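seq as requested:
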Amino acid sequence: MAESSSEESFEAAEARLERAFARLDASVRSLNGRMRAHSRIEADTARLVSERSRFAAELDKASARAKRLDDSAGEVARRLVIAMETVREVLAK
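struct tokens:
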């Protein structure tokens, strides 16, 4: 009977060990999944930061070009006013 009790204790310990290994395996798989998700998020974040920098540079270029065009339009308008005044003066004579 003592041998039977020892055998049952061993089987119970073996069952607990198997359950512990199963939980450990599930935890490792879960952790691996979370780590892969984290890596994807980090890669996406790095890509977004890079795109943001590129867009900021493009916006700066476009803003500079818009400023040059606005300045040019102001200069053209100024010259047109001068030309119209000159034409009026000529026609008035």
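The two ends are 136 Å apart (CA to CA).
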